[in-house]
Amino acid sequence: MEKTALLALLMVINLSSCTIIPGQHMNPFSEQSSVKLPVQENNAATLKKLNIQSIDAELIVSLEKNVKNRSLGLDNVANNYFEYRIGSVPVKGMPVKDTASQYLVGPRDILIITVWEHPELTNPFGGSSISIASANNVSSAGSAGSNTATTGGNVVGEDGTFFYPYVGIIKAAGRTVEEIRAELTEKLAQYIEKVQLDVRVNSYRSQRVYVVGEVNQPGIQTLKDIPLTVLEAINNAGGVNNQTADLRNITLTRESKTYSINLLSLYEGGDITQNVLLKQGDVLNVADNQFNKIFVFGENTVGGTGAGRSRSVIMNKGRMTLTEGLSEAGGFDQTTADAARIFVFRGGLNKPEIFHLDAQSPDALLLAEHFPLEPHDIIYVDRAEGIRWNQIIAQIQPTVTLLNLFNGTLNPKPLNNPR
Asked: Given a cut of 60, is residue 11 above it in pLDDT?
């Protein structure tokens, strides 16, 4: 009897200790979060418990009324997410709009100057100073042209000037080729009657922009006589990497200021203000999409080697609905999940929120299809109550088996039995 009582006591103790099942569970009757979270109120951080909002038709209607929070809306968190990523506040809006203008010559550019009917000004050796072709001698002009295409021409110095015979020092930096031509024509007119000359840039080397990040061919691109826009620069870099690029959050750094460019808004929304003209020294960075993730925990991922494991899912183009998120994670396990308790935790620093979906009826997934997720949302699928009891039994079973090894039955013999 003593042994029977002891065994019963052990089982009761084991049962009571197992009622606290390892893992995470949500209180099915809770209307608030169990922990306090920092919330911004009146420009100050305060700690408070969050109300759990039901994902119902009224909530969906209120969400869809706010157009600015739509996929390409200005207030959509996915469009402004790089502020959180890089830890700094960017300049709002685009840089001051520049109209396309003629190319301005700069230091290290190489100019080709051609004077017609005056072969005495021709540099027959090509060189790196001056190359002038004569229209009277076709073969000579052709020879000079071939030399200058590679090595000839006037190199603009670091001070922005170059030397020209009979004229002297000419300022070139910050001027168009037309302005340089006009000055040369005016000064050569003192020595040559009816001067005919042409000035063009043989090699563009003074102005560069840098395209980095998730493009197929990152590197340096030179500005030429054709204005370079963001879209052209990315195309010149082989386009973006479709698997890793975040089209919503491209950063343009210009003169110590950082601007946010939404290339997706340009591609899909036709917002041409995003196609900014680039300038000397601009840095165009195509960010990766690793921060555009959602996280799925709980009784998800039906079947396969990943069954029951939490996983992260990258939002395609920064947008995804709750139904898509559950589907990408494998759905929820029909044998262990409590479809009536699906939660979305949103940890925004300014407005953290908790949402609850009762998907016990499959048609509730229609509501989930209209519920947009945001980067770093956490989806949690709770475990069914019956499964918790089964886990208790599973934890008790090893103890019962161990006791049976001693006696082979749950009815032990008296202690005074020699066996």
From this structure: no
Alpha helices in 29-176 (DSSP H): 57-65, 82-86, 138-148
In this structure, what is the dihedral angle of CA atoms 338, 63, 319, 345, given to the nearest 10 degrees? -40
Question: What's the CATH code of the domain at 238?
Answer: 3.10.560.10
Same domain for 228 and 372, yes or no, is no
Average pLDDT, the chain: 77
Domain's final residue, options 261, 288, 315: 288
Question: Residue 165, Cβ neighbours under 10 Å: how many?
Answer: 14
- Residue 419 within any structural domain of the chain: no
Q: Work out the pLDDT band at 129, boundaries 50, 70, 90.
A: very low
Supply the range of the domain harboring residue 255.
91-100+206-288
Pairwise CA distance, residues 301 & 327, whole Å = 9
User: pLDDT category, 404, cuts 50, 70, 90?
Assistant: low
Domain total of the chain: 3
Which of 400, 388, 398 is CA-nearest to residue 19? 388
Phi, psi dihedral angles at 10 (to 5 degrees): -60, -40
Burial of 12 (0-12, 13-18, 19+ CB in 10 A): exposed
Alpha carbons 76 and 87: distance in angstroms, whole number: 18
Domain match, 59 and 133 both: no
Return all residues near 380 (Cβ < 8 A) that are at least 6 apart: 24, 26, 296, 297, 298, 342, 343, 344, 345
CA geometry: angle 392, 398, 403, nearest 5 deg? 125
DSSP 195-209: --EEEEEEE--S-EE
How many residues are there in the chain?
419
Report if residue 391 sits inside a domain.
no
Contact between 132 and 113 under an 8 Å Cβ cutoff? The reply is yes
Work out the average pLDDT over 243-262: 88
**For 150-166, what is each residue's pLDDT tens digit?**
457 889 999 999 999 88
